[in-house]
Amino acid sequence: MAPPSDLSPTAANVVAHGVDLVDIDDMRRLVETPLSSQLFRTFTQGELAACGEGQLRLERLAGRLAIKEAVMKALGVGFGDGVGFPDIETVNLDSGAPTVVLHNKIATLAEKAGVQRWLVSTSHTGKVALASVIGLAAK
User: Fold this and answer.
1) CATH code for the domain of 47
2) Is the pTM of this model over 0.85?
């Protein structure tokens, strides 16, 4: 499912909603563990590049992880139900707003649920990252 080109208002029905919260210290442990390959099983190369380096990297990564988990909750699937974190790719629109591009099984699940586009919001502090996702279908 490709991201929309913009977020212009249209008549739509909410068919899915998910929220998730990620602890920044937990994200730090994921990044700093010697098994850092977990980072590459969680995020795509594009997501890692978009988060950059520096002080806000952990918060950005945690926000993207929260988005992925919120999408899974919105669609009623868990990790290991044939869905992997890289199947939920977080990208930014030209406006800078986050959205998701779904791949493989989770894209099929979203289509079956009637989701045609996503509204995605994320916020973070030095301690936590929060994400909310809303799946919209045409009216």
Assistant:
1) 3.90.470.20
2) yes
